Amino acid sequence: MKTATYYLLVVLLVVFWGCRKIYEAPVPYTFKNTSGDGRFSPAIRQALEGVYTVSNGHEMFGEQVVVKWSYLLNNSDTTHYLSIFCGTDAAFFNLERGPQTYDLILNGYWRKLVNDATGLADLVVRVKQNGELKTLNGSLAETDTLVIQGTFGSNTQVPTQKLTLTYQRPLNKQPFAILAHRAGGRTSDLLPASENTVEMIKLAARFGATGIEIDVRYTKDGVPILYHDDNLNLRLIQKNGLTGPVEDYTYQQLTTLVRLINGEKIPTLEEALDAVINNTSLTFVWLDTKYTGPMDKVQAIQQKYNQRAIQTGRNLRIVIGLPSTDAVNAYKDLSNKENTPILCELDTTITRSLGATIWAPRWTLGPQTQEVNAMRADGYTVFVWTLDEPKFIQQFVQQNNFDGILSNYSSVVAYYHYSEN
Amino acid sequence: MSYRLYTCLFYCLLINLTANAQQRRERQRPSFLRPKRVFTPDHPRYVQPNTRQPSIYFPQAPQPGKVRKSIGIVFTTTPPELTEEILISVPAIDGNIQYGLTKHLFLTGRVQSQIIQSNIGLGLRWGAKLTDRLYVSPGFEATTWFGALRIKDVFTSQAYGIQTYPSLSVGYRLTRDVQFTIKGEAIMDLYYRSQVGNLAVVYDNRQVNGVALTFMLEQPFYHNRHVSLGFRAAYSNFNWQFWSLFDTFDRNLFYPQLIFGFIL
Q1: So what's the ipTM on this one?
Q2: Which residue in chain B is spatially nearest to A408 when comparing CA positions?
Q3: Most B CBs within 10 Å: which of A364, A387, A395, as the mutation test of the B interface?
Q4: For residue B156, what pLDDT is reported?
């Protein structure tokens, strides 16, 4: 009996561990990234943006969705992407224009951020004229209604489930900052790129973001890089035998020996800001201070890229985030604080005393209506961080107290903001 | 060939004709198992029929009207998906009380607390004896958990919820004093409410949150004081101890727990 007990124990342990699911969400679609408008002229793209009701497919994606375009710049080429933001399970679609045909075709994938559900999507844009669905050609009449219809599937399977979206109303145009945490989302969100990378920065707008937050540290030889954790660890990097603080390694060592979880190099702050200015339409960058020590190098880079943004006519603000008293002291130690926009995460008194233009309290303190209203009345911008719980995102957006939300689920913030009446 | 046939027949007759059932069982045991030993009353592995040893997890009911209790500590390790590079083993005070209602049925109560968050449970278990050593007990427990955090510039948050735990325990008495229990639980969510400032979120859909498997050893420690020492592997979507992390993943995460308790 004793032996049988041991056998039973081993079997139970093996079954228990064997049942543990390894979560992965590989993107089932390969983007062709064709630049140019194709048949999606600026007028059609503009007309397509809006809040749509979902008839077929509402069990998966909710009763309504938000449809919004974003783009990526590569020198003089512009590539457009259509995103659909849903109110269920932090779901979104990323689509690109399909092959040049008579129809307006969109191909891509969908993903639910709360789990690993994903799949292909093939959609086509139609117009409903007098109750009849037709191909959209040229401009829309006032009585026409846009309909996006097609199919979606599971993982790489051929899409067979019907999806029908019918235009309901335009997007909410109120200004609001949708800030993507760690350049787009955490590595644990199983996104196509690793957190704090150039690749993620290029994806941020497709996840609904209008701005990003990135984590800045110094290498041993003083190069500002993007990295969140205190140490090199298997959460963020591929196995290579290296451990310990990232500050113990030179930039050359990190570039040569370390690859992030999705194969990217750890980027320098300059590479990241280059990508923001040259490739994206992002309007805000929050440089989170994860380092200890002097701030002057980061300040110099911030000033350089803010200046470049002005020169290139970009609407872009790069600010240094001060999350702690150490960071505040590093800021105070700067010999010249001119042209150094900062964001303070500490209380309102410190924020005011530092001359910050942005106050960013934690969302776990609640809406703090009185303090937020007082700060905004005095001309401060107020962001709340890092808010991921969809129902709380909905309430924070509806309360309309804040100027923006920092979230790992920027697609959820986008859904609630743009669909707000 | 005929020799083998006669031998076989002989053994068949022997098995069928013997009046001793214990001997018959012994002969049917597979060859890779040791012959079953019969222990004399002075042997440490001798188990007196219907005996009761101090226990909390072992699936044997206390005598009707009797109470048994334990106090101890539970360490739960945070899953890396939630706390990323920071791996914390969070201790909680763990108190258990059980009261025998009938020969088989008993009430269970459990309190776990980390001061800022606590969990109170009440349940019923039915303990049944299969053999002198082997016991089984289905059970059902309902718990309510609640937590509140007020830290300047960090938290003004609170939350509470209700969960239920249908379970099945199987216990084996290894020796006179040492008892081993395996408990399987389903974790069901009934209600969840969290609040930050004056905003609140409620989830009240009944849903399966996860499963848990507990391996528990109960034995004497010193001066006839018994202890429970075990490991609980919970694989669930939400763990009440980490409500303040406001996890949004719809994924089952692994929560290992080390459990130690003095049976009073």
Answers
A1: 0.88
A2: B248
A3: A364
A4: 94
